Amino acid sequence: MDVRQSFVQDWHATTVLAVKRYGKIVMASDGQVTYGPTVMKASARKVRRIGDGKVLAGFAGAVADAMTLLERFENKYREWNGNLLKAAVELAKDWRLDRALRRLEAMLIVADSEHLLVLSGTGEVIQPDEDIAAIGSGGPYALAAARALMRNTDYDARKIVEEAMKIASEICIYTNDNFVIEEL
């Protein structure tokens, strides 16, 4: 084994969850950034408003990569005059075809009043069957909790997000309970 490999640590970061219900879209992320067995930061902000406040965007993955993608998405959104779906598809095309972009290790969730989408580096633009999307290390836990809450309660989007993120933070060691929540 290469000695350098024994010192290589994995960055683990983030749970991002978005829920659309009763005409509202709510997106949240936790604040934890973990490097190997160490919590490096507990208050990172991984959810943002973009597009003059009309779009929510959340990212998971390498921060520099995610910020690059977020910036490029926002540029595409402006280029396509606020058409979220078209901007997402165009970014996914670039992401898949551009040699430098292909190496970026991140995922995005973007949402406006009409669409909730997950964008991946493999060129996928996914509109979930249910109005719930989650990414990151704790994404599967948050997604499962949100689906159960959506199917079995009358909670609004914010309450579902808050409860599902709390559950994810109790299960995933890479997720804390320092949430940033944005709502449209």
UniProtKB/TrEMBL annotation:
The active site is at 14. Its EC number is 3.4.25.2. InterPro entries: ATP-dep_Prtase_HsIV_su, Ntn_hydrolases_N, Proteasome_sua/b, Proteasome_suB-type. Gene3D superfamilies: Glutamine Phosphoribosylpyrophosphate, subunit 1, domain 1. It catalyses: ATP-dependent cleavage of peptide bonds with broad specificity. One of its GO terms (biological process) is proteolysis involved in protein catabolic process. Na(+) binds at residues 169, 172, 175. GO terms for cellular component: HslUV protease complex; proteasome core complex. GO terms for molecular function: metal ion binding; threonine-type endopeptidase activity. It is an enzyme of class 3 (hydrolase). Keywords: Allosteric enzyme, Cytoplasm, Hydrolase, Metal-binding, Protease, Sodium, Threonine protease. It is found in: Cytoplasm. Allosterically activated by HslU binding. Pfam families: Proteasome. A double ring-shaped homohexamer of HslV is capped on each side by a ring-shaped HslU homohexamer. The assembly of the HslU/HslV complex is dependent on binding of ATP. Belongs to the peptidase T1B family. HslV subfamily. Protease subunit of a proteasome-like degradation complex believed to be a general protein degrading machinery. NCBIfam families: ATP_dep_HslV, PRK05456.1. This is ATP-dependent protease subunit HslV. The gene is hslV.
